[in-house]
Fold this sequence. Notes:
This protein has helices at about 40-50, 75-80, 95-105, 110-125, 140-150, 170-185, 195-205; strands at about 1-10, 15-25, 30-35, 55-60, 65, 80-85, 160, 190-195, 205-210, 215-220. The protein is an alpha/beta fold.
Amino acid sequence: MIELYDVWKTYGNGVNALKSVSVKISKGEFVYVVGPSGAGKSTFIKILYREEKPTKGAIFVNGFNVEKIRERQIPLIRRTIGVVFQDFKLLPNLTAYENVAFALEVIETPRKLIRNKVLEILAQVGLKGKENSKPNELSGGEQQRVSIARALVNNPAIIIADEPTGNLDPDTSWEIVRLLEDINYRGTTVIMATHNKDIVDRSKKRVIAFEGGQIARDERRGGYNYEN
């Protein structure tokens, strides 16, 4: 599903955010990406959906050669990837329904299909009855569920979650993780960058740990720290 070969990312200030990163992630995996601030995990996440472009190396995501695709092809790869952010990135003047529907409208989904798809996905993430609520009328956990629904509505092969629990309390954080685990159980590959040690340690899933722009550790049932 995802393959990186000797990937480097050097920013304009000379900082090597990624150094010779090579890794494979298979279809259906749930992977935590961990590491201290500045370790490279955010850059790693961003190059997967072409928010950043590698300086050198090869990246394949769901059959696309990410490093070599043309600019006009980027929307094609992004349709196969759903991205969930720490700060939700919801449009504040739109309802939950409209925020999710927007993801379908921009790819010109027929209007007659949008309503059923949006209502179905909102129900799946536990927001039935909240369709007409705007972001400021929802809790942080509910806003994140809208964000997840928006990421899911195109039936992506991969969900990339960048610190999705960073702004949430512990109980709500676990609700979001369990939702992502359910999505993964249905067959979607999930990659989640996080600083949440408790979640990583208790989940016992694959952990890829970054340090200094390199993969320091890759464990099938890992913890947040080495001693785990």
